[in-house]
Amino acid sequence: MRPSRAADLDTIVAAATPAGRSAIALVRISGGRALAVLRSLAPGLARPPRARRATLVELRDPLGNPFDRALATYYPAPNSFTGEDVVEIAIHGNPILARKLLAASAAAGAREAEAGEFSRRAFLHAKLGLTEAESVRELIDAKTEAAALGALRRLSGSLSGRLGRVRESILLAVTLWTASIDFPEQAGEEDPGAIGGHLGDAHRELAELLRCAAAGARVFSGVRVAIVGPPNAGKSTIFNAMLGRDRAIVTPHPGTTRDTLEGEIELEGLSIILIDTAGLRESAEPVESEGIVRARDEIERADVVLYVREAGERWTPEDRDFWSELSGRPRLLVSNKIDVRLPEPSEPGVRVCAVSPDAPAVLRAAVAGILREEFHADASTQVVSGRQRDLLDRAEKEVARAIESLEGRAPAEISVSHAEEALGILRDLVGETTTEDALDRLFSRFCIGK
């Protein structure tokens, strides 16, 4: 059940293209009076335009004065993006003309749309599921090719398909439980094997979606790569080399970097946020000490850590302790200054002279290898939004509790309650029971006209 009545909606209008001069500007009208608004704007239109065919019209203001010639396209309900009657008017891309068209549309009875209101109406008319509606915003906001591809595939229903299979598995388990509780003579006693099989299928799918959630979020928002290590190891030089420009100050004196610096590049179709940090050492100097604290904070936030040290330098106990602390997470040892000394043959990682012409390619290739393994760019079924991750986590926990209750021979009424709770959470996830306040928060993040 959708949480709002689509029949009560009025007619809305908004520009569908950004403000500014361009070849054309597009204005979109949606609602029961969309065609009437068009007739008011183009009184010379002899008959209703053919569906989904561009029609040349002369636009007039409320006083009857012509102000542009445009192409109008009519999409009758329910075969439109919003599920309502929709008219799209392509005018010459002068902001003055766009403002006149919006004002004339308002005078003809169309209200200015709120942020995300067209997508919201598509959801209310069941043209989009809530996860697909979120994918619309993700597609618009995508900063890289991988993020856009992932959003497009989610918009095509890849995530909804997986969620549908999860719900079907849980529903089958609930049906078997309910039958054994309400109709024990006909259905027989509880069948733990069959019920557990359905719940196991659901739990595995939810766990896989959650496992991919972190990678999906990073595909959308960017992978944080922290460059850390002792002072004077060449971290800032490596940061500049990977960035392709001199963003960080480089000197031969230890402790030059006092704060964190960020720069963004693209690798493997992903947005990579490089972070240059202060050298890790004990320091009594207040500013440098604060920089070291911030460096350690960035290490905690980072998805990948590059540990830079001078090639051939002896490993101190502090070096070894720090490198060990990074185990279990994506990390890369970078032995720098190989033009001065070479590292031990057994030392892992990559070896570079950060100032050499080939250093950027070597470093980027090494990081790309980590990205392919940890944050693969195929985001077709990965979860991106925080709302989706939170609800999936709750659903996974409820299914796990149902399995635990089943295996512990708990009363069927207790076990089935966890499965039914998981179904309710999944209904929230796809938007069947989402509150109006939640929808307001979600669609307010969209741009006007979408």
What is this entry, summarized?
The protein has 450 residues and is α/β, with parallel strands linked by helices. It has 15 helices and 12 strands. The strands form 2 sheets. A 6-stranded mixed sheet has the order 3-4-5-2-1-6, covered by helices on one side. Strands 8-9-7-10-11-12 form a 6-stranded mixed sheet, sandwiched between helices.
Reconstruct the topology from this structure:
Elements: E1 12-15, E2 22-30, H1 34-41, E3 55-60, E4 66-75, E5 86-93, H2 95-107, E6 111-112, H3 117-124, H4 130-141, H5 145-155, H6 158-182, H7 184-187, H8 192-221, E7 223-228, H9 235-243, E8 261-267, E9 270-276, H10 286-301, E10 304-310, H11 317-325, E11 331-336, E12 350-351, H12 359-374, H13 386-407, H14 412-430, H15 436-443
Parallel strand pairs: 1-6, 7-9, 7-10, 10-11, 11-12
Antiparallel strand pairs: 1-2, 2-5, 3-4, 4-5, 8-9
